[in-house]
Design brief:
The structure holds two protein chains of two kinds. By secondary structure, chain A is an alpha/beta fold. Chain A is 23% helix and 24% strand. In chain A, the strands form two sheets. In chain A, strands 2-1-3-4-11-10-9-6-7 form a nine-stranded mixed beta sheet, with helices on both faces. Chain A has a two-stranded antiparallel sheet with strand order 5-8. The radius of gyration of chain B is 16 Å and the shape is elongated. Classes of the chains: A alpha/beta, B alpha+beta. Chain A: Its EC number is 6.3.5.3, 3.5.1.2.
Chain lengths: 233, 80
Protein backbone atom coordinates (compact mmCIF):
# COMPACT_ATOMS: atom_id res chain seq x y z
CA UNK A 1 0.00 0.00 0.00
CA UNK A 2 1.27 3.41 -0.98
CA UNK A 3 -1.14 5.74 0.75
CA UNK A 4 -1.15 9.53 0.48
CA UNK A 5 -2.88 11.48 3.24
CA UNK A 6 -3.94 14.99 2.26
CA UNK A 7 -3.18 17.73 4.76
CA UNK A 8 -5.20 20.95 4.82
CA UNK A 9 -4.93 23.76 7.35
CA UNK A 10 -7.30 22.89 10.20
CA UNK A 11 -7.27 19.14 9.61
CA UNK A 12 -6.56 17.34 12.89
CA UNK A 13 -7.04 13.60 12.30
CA UNK A 14 -4.24 13.07 9.81
CA UNK A 15 -1.91 11.51 12.38
CA UNK A 16 -4.54 9.09 13.66
CA UNK A 17 -5.07 8.06 10.04
CA UNK A 18 -1.32 7.71 9.39
CA UNK A 19 -0.92 5.60 12.52
CA UNK A 20 -3.78 3.28 11.55
CA UNK A 21 -2.45 2.84 8.00
CA UNK A 22 1.11 2.21 9.21
CA UNK A 23 -0.08 -0.27 11.81
CA UNK A 24 -2.28 -2.28 9.50
CA UNK A 25 -0.53 -2.09 6.13
CA UNK A 26 3.04 -1.98 7.43
CA UNK A 27 3.81 0.91 5.10
CA UNK A 28 4.43 4.54 5.96
CA UNK A 29 1.90 6.82 4.26
CA UNK A 30 3.00 10.06 2.58
CA UNK A 31 1.63 13.33 3.94
CA UNK A 32 0.66 15.58 1.03
CA UNK A 33 0.22 19.32 1.57
CA UNK A 34 -2.88 20.89 0.00
CA UNK A 35 -0.88 23.27 -2.22
CA UNK A 36 0.78 20.38 -4.09
CA UNK A 37 -0.36 19.93 -7.68
CA UNK A 38 0.45 16.23 -7.93
CA UNK A 39 0.36 13.06 -5.84
CA UNK A 40 3.52 11.01 -5.08
CA UNK A 41 4.13 8.59 -7.93
CA UNK A 42 2.76 5.13 -7.32
CA UNK A 43 0.06 6.33 -4.92
CA UNK A 44 -2.60 3.61 -4.68
CA UNK A 45 -4.77 5.10 -1.94
CA UNK A 46 -5.62 8.75 -1.29
CA UNK A 47 -7.01 9.52 2.15
CA UNK A 48 -8.81 12.75 2.98
CA UNK A 49 -8.75 12.79 6.79
CA UNK A 50 -11.07 14.39 9.32
CA UNK A 51 -10.82 17.66 11.17
CA UNK A 52 -11.93 21.19 10.54
CA UNK A 53 -10.26 22.32 7.33
CA UNK A 54 -10.27 26.12 7.14
CA UNK A 55 -12.25 26.23 10.38
CA UNK A 56 -15.37 25.01 8.54
CA UNK A 57 -15.62 28.53 7.08
CA UNK A 58 -18.25 29.09 4.38
CA UNK A 59 -19.42 25.44 4.42
CA UNK A 60 -17.68 22.37 5.86
CA UNK A 61 -15.05 21.26 3.34
CA UNK A 62 -15.93 23.96 0.80
CA UNK A 63 -12.57 25.71 0.71
CA UNK A 64 -10.44 22.55 0.96
CA UNK A 65 -12.39 21.08 -1.96
CA UNK A 66 -11.02 23.89 -4.17
CA UNK A 67 -7.36 23.39 -3.13
CA UNK A 68 -4.80 22.71 -5.89
CA UNK A 69 -4.19 19.12 -4.74
CA UNK A 70 -7.86 18.29 -5.37
CA UNK A 71 -7.38 18.60 -9.14
CA UNK A 72 -4.74 15.88 -8.88
CA UNK A 73 -7.12 13.79 -6.77
CA UNK A 74 -9.90 14.22 -9.36
CA UNK A 75 -7.55 13.01 -12.15
CA UNK A 76 -6.39 10.12 -10.02
CA UNK A 77 -9.98 9.12 -9.15
CA UNK A 78 -11.06 9.39 -12.80
CA UNK A 79 -8.41 6.77 -13.60
CA UNK A 80 -9.93 4.45 -11.00
CA UNK A 81 -7.60 5.23 -8.06
CA UNK A 82 -8.98 4.53 -4.57
CA UNK A 83 -9.99 7.50 -2.43
CA UNK A 84 -11.15 7.33 1.20
CA UNK A 85 -12.68 10.39 2.88
CA UNK A 86 -13.50 10.33 6.58
CA UNK A 87 -15.64 12.93 8.38
CA UNK A 88 -14.40 16.31 7.12
CA UNK A 89 -12.87 14.24 4.31
CA UNK A 90 -16.37 13.05 3.35
CA UNK A 91 -17.56 16.67 3.35
CA UNK A 92 -14.60 17.68 1.18
CA UNK A 93 -15.33 14.88 -1.32
CA UNK A 94 -18.96 15.99 -1.59
CA UNK A 95 -17.97 19.64 -2.03
CA UNK A 96 -15.41 18.70 -4.67
CA UNK A 97 -18.00 16.84 -6.73
CA UNK A 98 -16.30 13.46 -6.30
CA UNK A 99 -19.34 12.25 -4.38
CA UNK A 100 -22.96 13.34 -4.78
CA UNK A 101 -25.04 15.05 -2.10
CA UNK A 102 -24.15 17.17 0.88
CA UNK A 103 -23.56 16.86 4.64
CA UNK A 104 -26.02 19.12 6.45
CA UNK A 105 -26.16 20.25 10.08
CA UNK A 106 -27.14 17.34 12.36
CA UNK A 107 -30.93 17.20 12.60
CA UNK A 108 -30.93 17.85 16.34
CA UNK A 109 -28.23 20.55 16.02
CA UNK A 110 -25.86 18.86 18.46
CA UNK A 111 -22.22 18.02 17.86
CA UNK A 112 -22.19 14.25 18.27
CA UNK A 113 -19.08 12.65 19.75
CA UNK A 114 -19.48 9.02 20.81
CA UNK A 115 -19.34 5.46 19.54
CA UNK A 116 -21.98 4.35 17.04
CA UNK A 117 -22.85 1.06 15.43
CA UNK A 118 -22.67 0.67 11.67
CA UNK A 119 -24.11 -2.04 9.50
CA UNK A 120 -21.79 -3.06 6.68
CA UNK A 121 -24.16 -3.43 3.74
CA UNK A 122 -21.96 -5.51 1.44
CA UNK A 123 -18.53 -7.09 1.54
CA UNK A 124 -17.65 -7.20 -2.18
CA UNK A 125 -15.96 -3.76 -2.38
CA UNK A 126 -12.37 -2.68 -1.66
CA UNK A 127 -13.73 -0.63 1.26
CA UNK A 128 -15.67 -3.42 2.95
CA UNK A 129 -13.97 -6.68 2.01
CA UNK A 130 -12.50 -6.92 5.51
CA UNK A 131 -16.04 -7.42 6.84
CA UNK A 132 -19.01 -9.68 6.20
CA UNK A 133 -22.18 -8.31 4.62
CA UNK A 134 -24.60 -7.48 7.43
CA UNK A 135 -21.84 -7.34 10.04
CA UNK A 136 -22.24 -4.69 12.76
CA UNK A 137 -19.15 -2.72 13.74
CA UNK A 138 -18.61 -0.14 16.48
CA UNK A 139 -16.68 3.03 15.61
CA UNK A 140 -16.67 6.61 16.92
CA UNK A 141 -18.20 9.67 15.31
CA UNK A 142 -17.33 13.30 16.01
CA UNK A 143 -19.25 15.75 13.87
CA UNK A 144 -21.73 18.59 13.82
CA UNK A 145 -22.54 18.33 10.13
CA UNK A 146 -22.99 14.68 9.21
CA UNK A 147 -26.60 14.62 8.10
CA UNK A 148 -26.27 13.21 4.58
CA UNK A 149 -28.83 14.59 2.13
CA UNK A 150 -29.27 14.44 -1.62
CA UNK A 151 -32.17 14.86 -4.01
CA UNK A 152 -34.65 11.99 -4.23
CA UNK A 153 -33.30 10.73 -7.53
CA UNK A 154 -29.71 10.56 -6.23
CA UNK A 155 -30.80 8.65 -3.10
CA UNK A 156 -32.77 6.25 -5.28
CA UNK A 157 -29.74 5.68 -7.49
CA UNK A 158 -27.41 5.19 -4.49
CA UNK A 159 -29.77 2.56 -3.08
CA UNK A 160 -30.50 0.93 -6.42
CA UNK A 161 -26.83 0.59 -7.29
CA UNK A 162 -25.86 -0.69 -3.83
CA UNK A 163 -23.66 2.32 -3.16
CA UNK A 164 -24.56 2.75 0.50
CA UNK A 165 -21.80 0.74 2.20
CA UNK A 166 -22.27 1.80 5.83
CA UNK A 167 -25.48 2.64 7.69
CA UNK A 168 -26.14 3.77 11.28
CA UNK A 169 -27.87 1.00 13.24
CA UNK A 170 -28.45 -0.49 16.70
CA UNK A 171 -25.96 -2.87 18.34
CA UNK A 172 -27.81 -5.77 16.76
CA UNK A 173 -28.00 -4.23 13.30
CA UNK A 174 -31.48 -2.69 13.26
CA UNK A 175 -31.66 0.41 11.08
CA UNK A 176 -34.33 2.79 12.37
CA UNK A 177 -34.86 6.46 13.20
CA UNK A 178 -33.89 5.90 16.86
CA UNK A 179 -30.34 4.97 15.77
CA UNK A 180 -30.06 7.46 12.94
CA UNK A 181 -27.84 9.74 15.03
CA UNK A 182 -27.78 12.79 12.76
CA UNK A 183 -30.96 12.47 10.71
CA UNK A 184 -29.19 11.33 7.51
CA UNK A 185 -31.33 10.19 4.59
CA UNK A 186 -31.82 6.41 4.84
CA UNK A 187 -29.43 6.37 7.86
CA UNK A 188 -26.53 6.75 5.44
CA UNK A 189 -23.09 6.79 7.12
CA UNK A 190 -20.95 6.02 4.05
CA UNK A 191 -21.36 5.92 0.27
CA UNK A 192 -19.26 5.25 -2.81
CA UNK A 193 -19.24 7.02 -6.17
CA UNK A 194 -20.70 5.43 -9.32
CA UNK A 195 -17.44 3.65 -10.16
CA UNK A 196 -17.06 2.35 -6.60
CA UNK A 197 -13.53 3.71 -6.09
CA UNK A 198 -14.31 6.73 -3.89
CA UNK A 199 -15.74 6.19 -0.39
CA UNK A 200 -16.92 8.94 1.94
CA UNK A 201 -17.98 8.16 5.50
CA UNK A 202 -18.70 10.24 8.61
CA UNK A 203 -17.49 7.77 11.32
CA UNK A 204 -13.80 7.32 12.20
CA UNK A 205 -12.67 3.72 11.65
CA UNK A 206 -9.05 4.86 12.21
CA UNK A 207 -9.88 5.48 15.87
CA UNK A 208 -10.81 1.85 16.59
CA UNK A 209 -7.78 -0.09 15.45
CA UNK A 210 -5.84 -0.94 18.62
CA UNK A 211 -6.74 -2.74 21.86
CA UNK A 212 -5.82 0.37 23.85
CA UNK A 213 -8.67 2.18 22.06
CA UNK A 214 -11.12 -0.31 23.58
CA UNK A 215 -12.22 -1.70 20.23
CA UNK A 216 -10.60 -2.82 16.99
CA UNK A 217 -13.66 -2.91 14.73
CA UNK A 218 -12.17 -0.27 12.42
CA UNK A 219 -9.28 -2.49 11.36
CA UNK A 220 -11.36 -4.40 8.83
CA UNK A 221 -11.69 -1.39 6.55
CA UNK A 222 -7.93 -0.82 6.33
CA UNK A 223 -7.04 -4.52 6.29
CA UNK A 224 -9.52 -5.00 3.44
CA UNK A 225 -8.00 -2.11 1.49
CA UNK A 226 -4.47 -3.48 2.03
CA UNK A 227 -5.61 -6.92 0.91
CA UNK A 228 -7.29 -5.51 -2.18
CA UNK A 229 -4.19 -3.49 -3.14
CA UNK A 230 -1.85 -6.41 -2.54
CA UNK A 231 -3.96 -8.58 -4.80
CA UNK A 232 -4.02 -5.90 -7.50
CA UNK A 233 -0.24 -5.40 -7.36
CA UNK B 1 -17.94 48.59 -7.97
CA UNK B 2 -19.76 47.20 -4.95
CA UNK B 3 -21.87 44.11 -5.17
CA UNK B 4 -23.79 41.74 -2.98
CA UNK B 5 -24.29 38.00 -3.37
CA UNK B 6 -27.07 36.53 -1.26
CA UNK B 7 -27.11 32.77 -0.73
CA UNK B 8 -30.25 31.08 0.54
CA UNK B 9 -31.32 27.49 1.09
CA UNK B 10 -33.55 26.02 -1.59
CA UNK B 11 -37.18 25.44 -0.71
CA UNK B 12 -37.72 22.09 0.95
CA UNK B 13 -34.19 21.88 2.40
CA UNK B 14 -34.40 21.44 6.16
CA UNK B 15 -32.88 24.43 7.97
CA UNK B 16 -32.44 23.50 11.64
CA UNK B 17 -30.60 26.78 12.35
CA UNK B 18 -33.51 28.79 10.95
CA UNK B 19 -35.89 26.68 13.05
CA UNK B 20 -33.87 27.37 16.21
CA UNK B 21 -33.91 31.12 15.50
CA UNK B 22 -37.63 30.94 14.81
CA UNK B 23 -38.14 29.26 18.19
CA UNK B 24 -35.99 31.89 19.94
CA UNK B 25 -37.96 34.74 18.36
CA UNK B 26 -41.19 33.14 19.51
CA UNK B 27 -39.86 32.72 23.04
CA UNK B 28 -38.82 36.41 23.01
CA UNK B 29 -42.42 37.26 22.31
CA UNK B 30 -41.78 38.74 18.85
CA UNK B 31 -45.23 38.64 17.29
CA UNK B 32 -46.22 37.34 13.90
CA UNK B 33 -43.09 35.38 12.96
CA UNK B 34 -44.36 32.60 10.70
CA UNK B 35 -40.99 31.10 9.77
CA UNK B 36 -37.26 31.87 9.55
CA UNK B 37 -34.74 30.62 6.99
CA UNK B 38 -31.08 31.48 7.51
CA UNK B 39 -28.84 32.46 4.61
CA UNK B 40 -25.53 34.20 3.89
CA UNK B 41 -24.64 37.63 2.49
CA UNK B 42 -21.33 38.40 0.76
CA UNK B 43 -20.43 42.05 0.19
CA UNK B 44 -17.87 42.15 -2.58
CA UNK B 45 -15.83 44.96 -4.08
CA UNK B 46 -14.91 44.51 -7.70
CA UNK B 47 -12.10 46.12 -9.63
CA UNK B 48 -14.08 46.03 -12.87
CA UNK B 49 -16.31 48.98 -13.75
CA UNK B 50 -18.02 47.09 -16.56
CA UNK B 51 -21.44 45.86 -15.44
CA UNK B 52 -21.62 42.76 -17.63
CA UNK B 53 -18.11 41.69 -16.66
CA UNK B 54 -18.86 42.25 -12.98
CA UNK B 55 -22.02 40.18 -13.17
CA UNK B 56 -20.18 37.37 -14.96
CA UNK B 57 -17.43 37.37 -12.31
CA UNK B 58 -19.96 37.29 -9.47
CA UNK B 59 -21.88 34.47 -11.07
CA UNK B 60 -18.65 32.52 -11.47
CA UNK B 61 -17.76 33.18 -7.83
CA UNK B 62 -21.16 31.97 -6.67
CA UNK B 63 -21.17 28.86 -8.86
CA UNK B 64 -17.60 27.88 -8.04
CA UNK B 65 -17.49 28.62 -4.33
CA UNK B 66 -19.99 30.85 -2.56
CA UNK B 67 -23.01 28.59 -3.03
CA UNK B 68 -23.41 24.82 -3.04
CA UNK B 69 -26.02 24.66 -5.76
CA UNK B 70 -27.12 21.20 -4.61
CA UNK B 71 -28.89 22.86 -1.68
CA UNK B 72 -28.57 26.61 -2.19
CA UNK B 73 -29.80 29.36 -4.52
CA UNK B 74 -28.03 32.66 -4.95
CA UNK B 75 -28.84 36.17 -6.09
CA UNK B 76 -26.35 38.68 -7.48
CA UNK B 77 -26.89 42.44 -7.05
CA UNK B 78 -24.72 45.28 -8.31
CA UNK B 79 -24.86 48.14 -5.82
CA UNK B 80 -22.93 50.64 -8.00
Amino acid sequence: MKAAILVFPGINRERDMARALRLISGHEPAMVWHAETSLPSGTDLVVVPGGFSYGDYLRCGAIAARAPVMDAVRDYAAKGGLVLGVCNGFQILCESGLLPGVLMRNARLKFICHDVHLRVERSDTPFTRGYNAGQVIRVPVAHGEGNYEADEETIKRLEGEGRVLYRYCSADGVVDEAHNINGAAHSIAGIVNDKGNVLGMMPHPENHVEDIMGCTDGRGLFAGLAQHLEKAA
Amino acid sequence: MKARVTVTLKTGILDPQGKAIEGALKSLGVDGVASVRQGKVFDIELAAADKAKAEAALKEAADKLLANTVIENYRVELLG
